[in-house]
Amino acid sequence: MRTGASAAVVAAVVLAVVAVPLLFPLDQQAVDLSAKLRPPSPDHPFGTDEMGRDLLLRCVYGLRVSLLVGVVAALVATVVGIAVGGLAGALGGRTDRLVMRVVDVFAAVPHLLLGIFIVAMFRPGVWPVIASVGLTHWLSTARIVRAEVHSLRARPFVDAAISGGASRWRVAVRHLLPGVLPQAGLAAVLMVPHAIWHESALSFLGLGIPAHQASLGTMVDAARGTLLAGAWWPTLWPGLFIIVPTLAVAGLAGAWRERINPRRRSELML
């Protein structure tokens, strides 16, 4: 049931972010001060914000940005993690120790702090946020891939390939890489919710998506003043659009983990 509900939520999210922008193009600059802070109604199911903009449309557009950042950043982090972890595990010895010391150095710096440093070097926008998240979240993938490569190197078929004269490159591509892809793919899926939360945090701090562009983090930031004035809807809906999809993706990732590792019950950590 949990998996079915998660799949239904993810399917609804994908359908919304694809179909709504095509059916209801949104002018990011348009405001209607005569309709500001209207509560939920048939005309505006989620109400309007402090600029009179429809919150339902803006939440969908903000979720679209968050998913773009989450998916692309997770792919970037996964590619970097596979490359670093695979290099360390395949070569072993001094290279392995050196690479893992570099990983430890990066791990000693808080992700959000390092992400703020990266994104602050550029103008606010989607791609700096993607680079910031992707370049700070590859560490866990690198460790997972390294551990998997070490495990695979001890298998008889790898010894047989090496004894048969196969080069290190051929062994890595034909035998080691296919073995680490399931775990690396799982790490990438689990990274998507984490990346969405980091994008929202950076936008909330004013370092992510520009303020005029629909983003869940900037919407929550802009709604802080309206919450004190008694308007709860500009804060509630963007917050739910952050929480519910990320929990749904995490639920699907948990089902995947149990499938590829059935002897362990997974505990999802966002």
Please give the radius of gyration in angstroms.
Answer: 22 Å
N/C terminus separation: 21 Å
Shape: elongated
> Could you give the order of the helices and strands?
HHHHHHHHHHH
Enumerate how many helices there are, as a single number.
Answer: 11
Arithmetic mean pLDDT: 82
Low-confidence stretches: 264-270
The percent range for helix content is over 70%
Number of strands: 0
Strand content: under 5%
- Largest sheet composition: none
Structural class determined from secondary elements: mainly alpha
Describe the fold and architecture.
With 270 residues, the chain is mostly helical. Helices cover 71% and strands 0% of the residues. It has eleven helices and no strands. It starts with a helix and ends in a 10-residue tail after the last helix.
